[in-house]
Amino acid sequence: MSDPAKVRRHAERVRELVASVVRSQIKDPRLGMITITDARITADLRDATVFYTVLGDAAAQASTAAALESAKGMLRSTVGKALGLRHSPTLTFVLDDVQDQVKHIDDLLAQARHADAEVQRLATRAEYAGEAQPYRLEEESEAAGDEVPPPGGEQR
Q1: Bridge-partner residues for 27, per DSSP?
Q2: Is pTM, for the whole model, over 0.90?
Q3: Ramachandran region of residue 53, left (φ > 0), alpha (ψ -120 to 50) or beta?
Q4: Which of 50, 57, 93, 115 is at a distance of 20 to 30 A from 75, taking alpha carbons?
Q5: Using CA atoms, how far apart are residues 40 and 94, in angstroms rounded to an integer?
Q6: What's CA 33's distance to the chain center, in Å?
């Protein structure tokens, strides 16, 4: 088991290396507008997961995924040499759909705001079903001459 700080440093280095190699060395025409967003590496430094986003539609995402899959060997060797580890970590590429999740959450928040506005609109026109104050107040019962029961429920 490695030191967690060391694992974080290696994960950050993997992210930087993959981004640099994708930008400068991979000349695959299928590679779209890609951004490497994050990398995570296991505690034993054997497996690395690289998260990326692609600007474009589903076809651009699929072609970028295919280009990354075909360049995986070169990326793995570059990362292994740069990290100086005994075993080069295997690379797994995962499409990071944060933007889709953000859009979904924004849509849900807009629906909640709309529902709250509708409830507020209905509340402004609402009227009481009975009296405005349905509870007897102590001042009213004393003025009427009623005896206020002591706390405990029984009258004397």
Answers
A1: none
A2: no
A3: beta
A4: 57
A5: 11
A6: 22
